Give the backbone structure.
Amino acid sequence: MLALIQRVTEAQVEVDGDIIGKVGEGLLILICAMQGDTEAVGAKLALKISKLRIFRDNQGHMNRSIQDTGGSALIVSQFTLGADTSRGNRPGFSKAANPDDGQRLYDAFVTDFKALGIPVETGQFGADMKVLLLNDGPVTIWIDTES
């Protein structure tokens, strides 16, 4: 799985002009399931993200996790994270999971993240979404479970 994690002071996602998910301080997690990924991979990724010490402590150092801060997460599916740009100018997405597997793995990831006691809002799988965020820091971290 691929994840792009952004520490935010706020973030929201809209579908057809309606806000369907909104968080304050916490994380915006863009997630892409790749071919061959499993629910176990997603569960391990959720645990890893929940423990990442990327929030400031009292001294201003990145030393606290989202679990430590009581923050929330906005989790949005984004298959374009799996783009292959190695050939030509048009990205290919053949390595991303097919839509049925992608939705199943995305839903499982969301369930796993919620099970860690973190408040979660979501986007809508497969929808044309507009994501608005205020990146804090900026702190943006890329995770590829294959590496």
About this structure: The CA atoms of residues 24 and 132 lie 12 Å apart. The chain has one domain: 2-144. The domain at 2-144 is CATH 3.50.80.10 (D-tyrosyl-trna(Tyr) Deacylase; Chain: A;). The helical segments are 39-51, 66-69, 99-115.
